[in-house]
Write a structure and sequence with these properties.
Blueprint: E1 10-15, H1 21-33, E2 37-42, H2 44-53, H3 58-64, E3 67-69, E4 87-93, H4 95-103, H5 109-119, E5 123-128, H6 135-146, E6 150-151, H7 165-178
Parallel strand pairs: 1-2, 1-4, 2-3, 4-5, 5-6
Helix pairs in contact: 1-7, 4-5, 4-6
Length: 198
C-alpha cells in the first residue's frame, strides 16, 4: 500500500519491557495482514520479558516485521524525520520508556523515534502498561498527552464478549490501529452488528 506521494504506508512499532509482549506481536501480525510496512525496535528488557511470558524469541518477531533495528542503532532510518511514516505505536510501553520520551532525553532508538514522530506532528500511540500508578506516572502521562501523544493504556473491553485471551488482545490492538485509520476487520464495533433476539 502506498500514500499519494508514493511513500509506502509504514508504521514504526516499538516493543518495550512492560508486561504484555503479546500485544506487540499481534500488532505486527495485524499490520502485515493490512498491508502496512512495519519498522520494528525491540528493547533489551522486552527480549527478557518475552522469555518469561511467551515461547517467542526476538528472531520470531523480527520475521513478522518488514524491517527491524537494534535498540542502540540511533543512526537508523526511523531516527530522522525525513523518513516518512504514519507514526509510531509502542505496545507494550513501559514506565521507563514513556518517562524517557516525556523528557526528550532519547537515549535509545525507541525513544528517539518517538521524539521524532512527536516533533514531526505524526501520530504516537502509547500502549502504556503499569498498575497501580503514582502521581509522577500520572503527571508524565498528562505531559505526553499535552505533547501530542495518544495514551492508550492496555485495558481490556468486555462489551465485545471476548471468549479467549486472543479475543481480548485482538480487540485492544485493533482499537489502537483504529487510531491510525487502519482497518483490521477484527473489531466488534458497538451497535455495528445486527441486533440479536434476547
Ligand atoms: C516480567 C517482567 C514484567 C514487567 N512488567 C512491567 C510492566 O508491566 N510495566 C513496566 O513499566 N515495567 C515492567 N517491567 C520492568 C521493565 O522491564 C523495566 O523497567 C525496564 O527497564 C524497561 O526498559 P525498556 O523501557 O527499555 O523496555 C517488567 C519487568 C519484568 C522482568
Amino acid at each position: 500500500m502506498a500514500t499519494n506521494n508514493g511513500t509506502p504506508e509504514r508504521i514504526i512499532v516499538g516493543i518495550t519491557g512492560a508486561s504484555g509482549v503479546i500485544y506487540g506481536i499481534r500488532a505486527l501480525e495485524l499490520l502485515a495482514e493490512a498491508g502496512i510496512e512495519t519498522h520494528l525496535v525491540i528493547s533489551k528488557a522486552a527480549e527478557l520479558t518475552m522469555t518469561y511470558e511467551t515461547d517467542f524469541r526476538a528472531a520470531d518477531l523480527r520475521e513478522r516485521a518488514s524491517k527491524w533495528y537494534a535498540p542502540a542503532d540511533i543512526g537508523a532510518a526511523i531516527s530522522s524525520g525525513s523518513f516518512r511514516t504514519k507514526g509510531m505505536l509502542i505496545v507494550p510501553c513501559s514506565v521507563r520508556s514513556m518517562s524517557e520520551i516525556a523528557t526528550g532525553i532519547t537515549s535509545s532508538l525507541i525513544s528517539r523515534a518517538a521524539d521524532v514522530v512527536l516533533k514531526e506532528r505524526r501520530r504516537l500511540v502509547l500502549g502504556v502498561r503499569e498498575t497501580p500508578l503514582h502521581g509522577g506516572h500520572l503527571r508524565t502521562l498528562v505531559q505526553l498527552s499535552d505533547m501530542g501523544a495518544i495514551i492508550a493504556p492496555i485495558v481490556p473491553a468486555f462489551y465485545s464478549k471476548p471468549q479467549t485471551i486472543a479475543d481480548i488482545v485482538d480487540h485492544t490492538v485493533a482499537r489502537m490501529l483504529d487510531l491510525f485509520d487502519i482497518e483490521t476487520g477484527v473489531v466488534k464495533r458497538w451497535k455495528d452488528q445486527p441486533q440479536q433476539e434476547s
